[in-house]
## 1
Amino acid sequence: NAGVMQNPRHLVRRRGQEARLRCSPMKGHSHVYWYRQLPEEGLKFMVYLQKENIIDESGMPKERFSAEFPKEGPSILRIQQVVRGDSAAYFCASSGRDRDTDTQYFGPGTRLTVL
Amino acid sequence: SQQGEEDPQALSIQEGENATMNCSYKTSINNLQWYRQNSGRGLVHLILIRSNEREKHSGRLRVTLDTSKKSSSLLITASRAADTASYFCATEPSGSEKLVFGKGTKLTVNP
């Protein structure tokens, strides 16, 4: 049973470029969450999606950041025109809420470095 | 704003000793979850305790929840060097499905 998968594991971008982070939830899970972690900090919630719907984006910066979870394929977190302050670890989690299981299982994360 | 706040920020003990970490939060919750993170790695789910539960056990882990004090504790008994990691509590606020994390407790277990 594969867990939550994220790729790439490490991503290096120059300022102004775009970063695309992908997340495949655990099999059978249709709820996806994205979190960001700065060094020596806890995780901060960004966005919660179900298939084709954004449910809660209260933690997403207003500009440059977007997320989607299409009917087919992984969830994508997209950061346009990256800046140095975007350097962080980005974690995706999934849960099977529709199966009355509210534990969130995390992927290994994508470590984004902006030069 | 951070809801869960762990205490202490860092804890260093000898193998075989017990480790206790505390977490306080501010709003009403659906559940509280504890996670472990090894340096530079992802989060491993340890245990979930619901708002109507007071205590839960899993192997060497014991979690308590006091909703009147808005606090939780994680006890690791008979610690091992492999328990060295950062431990985070995460609360799911009532009416929400996101998790709110504290800054974590860094546990070091010396062999």
Note: Chain B has a mean pLDDT of 92.
## 2
Amino acid sequence: DAGVIQSPRHEVTEMGQEVTLRCKPISGHNSLFWYRQTMMRGLELLIYFNNNVPIDDSGMPEDRFSAKMPNASFSTLKIQPSEPRDSAVYFCASSLAGTAEEEQYFGPGTRLTVT
Amino acid sequence: GEDVEQSLFLSVREGDSSVINCTYTDSSSTYLYWYKQEPGAGLQLLTYIFSNMDMKQDQRLTVLLNKKDKHLSLRIADTQTGDSAIYFCARGGYNKLIFGAGTRLAVHP
């Protein structure tokens, strides 16, 4: 299994530009999570989906952030417009909800730098 | 994670045991987890413990759970340089995980 796939691995953009991060979960998993990691704030859950439906988006910082999951094998996290404080590593994770262990499998992350 | 707390740093000598501690406030979780993050990588599940267990051992790893005190610990025996990483404690809750801030373990010769 290829694991959770994220693209791009690195993104450098200028303030004000739109950024789109992509994630392909593990085949068969029905839950998908977007996290943001910074030195200051640690690991934050932004949003998660169950069966392609957003369940909890309370962690999304503001309206500039949006996430979609059009089908079971693809999700995007969009930031428009981007700001320097959005610089972070963004992780996508997937799991099989309803299993006892609730193990989440993380992707390698996208390192975003906004200048 | 607002209700999962860990110390931020731990430094140990190679060959010694490492003990990473975690406290949590919500005791409703069925499972508690330890994840490991190596530099430049995502988190990987290291081990987990069912909430009605006191201890779980897996090779060099020992997890201790004190439900009364809401305290979880991870002991790594014979710590190696390859164990240098950030270790996250997490509790399960309603299909999502609540993570602590992570403990950075540094192993020195």
Note: The first strand of chain B starts at residue 4 and ends at 6.
